[in-house]
Automatic annotation (TrEMBL):
Protein's UniProt keywords contain Nucleotide-binding: no
Record's protein name: Acyl-CoA thioesterase
UniProt KW Hydrolase keyword: yes
UniProtKB keywords: Hydrolase
Organism expressing this protein natively: Haloferax chudinovii
Domain HotDog ACOT-type intervals: 9-121
Pfam family for this entry, one: 4HBT
Taxonomic superkingdom: Archaea
InterPro entries hit by this protein: Cytosol_ACT, HOTDOG_ACOT, HotDog_dom_sf, Thioestr_dom
Gene Ontology molecular functions: fatty acyl-CoA hydrolase activity
Documented EC number(s): 3.1.2.20
SUPFAM superfamilies given in the database record: Thioesterase/thiol ester dehydrase-isomerase
Amino acid sequence: MSESTATLGESRTEMTELLLPNDTNNLGRALGGAVLHWMDICGAIAAMRFSNRQCVTASMDHVDFIGPIDLGEVAVIEAYVFNVGRTSVDVKVDVHAENPKTDELRKTTTSFLTFVALDDDGKPTPVPRLVCETDEEDELRAEAVAARADQLESVIERME
């Protein structure tokens, strides 16, 4: 029996959300919880596209909100699979704020989420092996692996 494979490109997902008053704080900026919700959805879609399975969130790494998303701006959420385990899928999720009047795009946060693929009975099931078909995919994967390692190292240093 041959091992199944899927590509990083097949998992790539982009979502957009217009920041409306219901998702803002009293300063007119995106609520952190709304941003985390969008990240979780986008990451899950990337994991499901990759595995062709229902996927559930297992973990979300450290999240730093490095810039705001203001009322009326567009949140651009991008995700892709960069690593896999036996039944788990690691996804990098980036969030940018886009000013629709100027097309300016600024980074607001990045995190790494892990999802578990489920079979029809709701039990963890094996996922395909990750394949990078292009140099760009290889670079994205390498950048995500290095960025996650750096982020985890930074969190550990803060805890010491």
